[in-house]
Amino acid sequence: MDFLKKLFGKGKDEPEELHLEFENLREWSKTRYEREVNAAKPLISDLYSVIGNKLEQLRVDKKAFLAATPIESADKKMGKIGDSNRDVIVDNLEILDEKITVPHDNSIEGAYTFYTEAVSHMDTFLDNTRKSMLYAKKLYPTEYNKISGDLAHLNHALSDLFSTIEGPRHKLGMISNIFADIEAIHNLESEIMECRDNIQELENKYTSLDEILQGAKSDLEELVNGSEYPRAEAINSEIDDVRQQAQDVEADIKRMFTPLSKALSRMKKQDENGIHTLSPQVRNILDTVMQDPVSALDNNLDPLYDELILRLQSDSLGLKDKKKDKTLEQVHSIKTSSSLKSLYEDKKKYDNRLRQLRDQLDQMDVYRQKTSMEKDISKKQEALFSTEDKLEDETERLQSLEEQLVNTKSKLSSHVNDAFEEDIEINFR
C-alpha cells in the first residue's frame, strides 16, 4: 500500500494528514474556536429577530383577545366562564412576555441559556393555561387559533435556534477539552521537571551523605585498631573477671548467713512486738545483717552473735531442737572461724582492684570517643536511609507523572481529531 501511494499518490477521497506542533496547538485551536463562534453569531442574531417578531405578534394577539367577544351561540353563563378563562390566558401571556427577553449578547452559550429558559417558560405557560385554552377554543375560536398558531411559531423558532447552536456548542465543548488537556500537559511537564530536579538533588545528597558515612566508619575502624583501644578492652575484660570474683565472694558470705535467717527473723519480730526488746546497738546490727550481710561485715558483729546465742540457748526463739542446734553451730562457726574474715578480706581486695581498674579506664578517652563516633554514625545512617526513602518516593512519583503525561497526550490527540474531524498528528516536543 505504501508503494502504491508513492507511485500514484493519495486518492481523491483520502484526507490529507495535518501535522501540528504542540506549541502551536492552542493558538490553532483558538482560531478554530473563534471561527465557530463568529460563524454562529449572525445566525443567532437572525433567529433572535424572528423570535422577537413572534413575541411581538403574541402581544398583538393578546390585545385582540382582550377586545374579543364569545361566539353568538354562547349564553350569559358561558360568556362569564369565557371571560374568566380569557383573563387566565392573558395574564400568562403577559408573564411569558416578561420572562422571555431576547438577549443582546449573541454568543453560543448565551443563546443556549436563553433557549433552555424560554422553553421552560413556554412549558409553564402551557401547564397553567391548558384548561383555559380548551374554553378559548370553543368560545373564541378565531383568537384561539391565532394565539395557538403564533405560540407554535415561537416554539418552532426556538427549536431552530437550538438546531443552529447545538452542533457549534458541542464542538466548542470539545475544543474546551483541548484547552484543558493542553493546560494539564503543561502542568504535568512542569511537575516532571521539578521532580527530576528533586531527584538530582536527592542523588547528590545521598552520594555526599554516603561518603561522609564511610569516612566516619573508617575513623571508627582506625580507632578500634589503634593501640589504646585493645588496652582498654583488656582492662574492661579484667574488670568483668574481678567483678565476677567479687560477686562469687558475696554469694559465699550470704550463704554463711543463710542458716541464721529464721532465727534472725524471729528476733526482729519479737523486738517489734515488744516480747524481747533489743538494745539499739544490736537492733541496728540485726537490720544491717538481714538487709545486706556483706556490708554488715564492716561492723563488729559480736554483740549480735552473743545475743543470738543467748536467745537460742534459752529457747526464746521457739525453734525446734534440730533447727536450734544447727543454728547454734553456724553462729559459733561464723564467730570463731577465719572463713568469713578471709572472704571479707577477699571482697575488699576485689573491690579495691575494681576501683583501680575503673580509674584506669576513666582516664582513657577511647571508649567515650567510640561511643560518640557510633552515635554519630547512627545519625548519619538515619539521614542516609531517610534520603534513600525520599529518593524512592520521588522516583515513583516521576514514573506516575510520566504515565499521566503519556495518557493525557493520547487523550489530547483523540479530542483534537474528534473536535475537528480531521486526520491530525500532533508533534510533541
Distance between the termini: 30 Å
Helix content: over 70%
Order of helices and strands: HEHHHHHHHHHHHHE
Overall radius of gyration: 55 Å
Q: Major sheet, described briefly? A: 2 strands, parallel
- Unreliable segments (pLDDT under 50, ≥5 consecutive)? 1-12
Beta-strand proportion: under 5%
Q: Which class of secondary structure composition applies to the elements? A: mainly alpha
Strand order of the largest sheet: 1-2
Global geometry? elongated
Number of helices: 13
Mean pLDDT comes to 85
Number of domains: 2
Structural write-up:
There is one protein chain. This protein has helices at 2-8, 22-67, 76-99, 108-139, 141-224, 228-257, 261-272, 280-291, 293-296, 302-313, 321-336, 339-363, 366-420; strands at 18-21, 424-427. It is mainly alpha-helical and 429 residues long. The chain has two domains: 21-196, no CATH class; 228-364. This is Cell surface protein. Keywords: Coiled coil.
List its traits.
mainly alpha, 429 residues, disordered N terminus, 2 domains
Outline:
It is built from 13 helices and 2 strands. The protein has 429 residues and is an all-alpha fold. The chain has a two-stranded parallel sheet with strand order 1-2.
